[in-house]
From TrEMBL:
Signal peptide: none annotated. It comes from the Bacteria. It holds the Pfam family FecCD. One of its GO terms (molecular function) is transmembrane transporter activity. This is Iron ABC transporter permease. One of its GO terms (cellular component) is plasma membrane. Its main location: membrane. The lineage of its organism: Bacteria, Pseudomonadati, Pseudomonadota, Alphaproteobacteria, Rhodobacterales. It is found in: Cell membrane. The chain crosses the membrane at residues 54-75, 84-103, 109-129, 136-155, 184-204, 225-247, 267-285, 292-313. It comes from Paracoccus amoyensis.
């Protein structure tokens, strides 16, 4: 029931986001586009401008949400975010370096992907052969802080115009996204989603603790490394097309788990909730676009900051009761 509710919400917000803009479309207008194709009056507006942006939002949101669900289950903490792996900061450093060098478009996305891969390789090397959860978190935070410091250093020495472009990318945006970005994120998401669902059994048992998971037949060391690589690949794919959009991964996992009847991780639900959050944020961008389209990361931050405060307050209240 929970998943059906989320799917219905995603579909409703998707259609609303497709209809809203400087030119508002009715259901009949969108039906004419679907029926007549390129011959329809609003074909270019729907198919070439709005649809690829929203498809990118759904794919990237699902990737962020899925990565968040994996990290929160792997670290056994609802406050765990993919940023703890250092992958987001590594991707940001790679992309900002290329933006400041004068590159644009797909090259910047490639730089973000390479930065993310280097960050996770460094994480696995520094964390050691059989990393415990605490060691992974501390190593990931160290990599994240180092990469963020290097990004700040590059920005402080950059030309104002290029620094402005880099800062816009760092906020996370769906503006100007077209079919190449949509194909990229969906081409990466579908196989990674299948692998993540296959690894959900490992996650369910790892939540019980390493010793118990080992006794239940889980190869703890290999499982943890595979799951980290999956989360890193999901983040790399999403960041390469949207930039580092914050809070989506943090919110998606706990919301999906609260709507699920299963006590363990609900990765499909986390992907759906992530997609819903991203499309909802894109709708907020469109509704507030009086003069200029704002970055979508601003609105995910507005949604996520109260959520984080509530999680911290709930955790503090539970500890007081205990």
């Amino acid at each position: 029931m929970g998943r059906l509710l989320i799917v219905a919400a995603v579909a409703a917000v998707f259609l609303l986001d497709l209809a809203v803009g400087r030119i508002w479309l009715s259901l009949d207008d969108m039906w004419q586009v679907a029926r007549h194709g390129p011959g329809a009056e609003h074909w270019i507006l729907v198919y070439e401008l709005r649809l690829p942006r929203i498809a990118t939002a759904v794919g990237a949101g699902a990737a962020f949400g899925l990565a968040g669900g994996i990290c929160q289950s792997l670290f056994r903490n609802p406050l765990a975010a993919p940023e703890m792996l250092g992958v987001t900061a590594g991707a940001s450093l790679g992309a900002v370096g290329l933006v400041l060098a004068g590159f644009q478009g797909a090259v910047v996305g490639l730089g973000a992907g390479c930065g993310a891969i280097l960050a996770v390789v460094l994480l696995l090397i520094l964390a050691g052969g059989a990393p415990a959860v605490t060691r992974l978190i501390l190593t990931g935070v160290g990599i994240s802080l180092t990469a963020s410091a290097l990004t700040g250093l590059l920005l402080s020495r950059a030309d104002d115009a290029l620094a402005g472009d880099a800062m816009l990318w760092l906020t996370g945006s769906l503006n100007g996204r077209h079919w190449p970005q949509a194909r990229l994120i969906w081409g990466a998401l579908l196989p990674l989603l299948l692998l993540s669902v296959a690894g959900a059994r490992w996650l369910d048992r790892l939540e019980l603790g390493d010793d118990l998971a080992q006794s239940l037949g889980v190869p703890v060391r290999m499982a943890r490394m595979v799951l980290i690589l999956l989360a890193a690949a999901l983040i790399a794919a999403a960041v390469s097309v949207t930039g580092p959009v914050g809070f989506v991964g943090l919110m998606a996992g706990p919301i999906a788990r609260s709507l699920s009847r299963h006590s363990g991780p609900d990765l499909i639900g986390a992907a759906l909730v992530g997609a819903l959050i991203m499309v909802l944020a894109d709708l907020m961008v469109t509704l507030t676009a009086f003069r200029v389209l704002l970055p979508v990361g601003i609105f995910t931050g507005l949604l996520g900051a109260p959520w984080l405060i509530w999680l911290l307050w709930r955790d503090t209240s539970e500890r007081r009761v205990m």
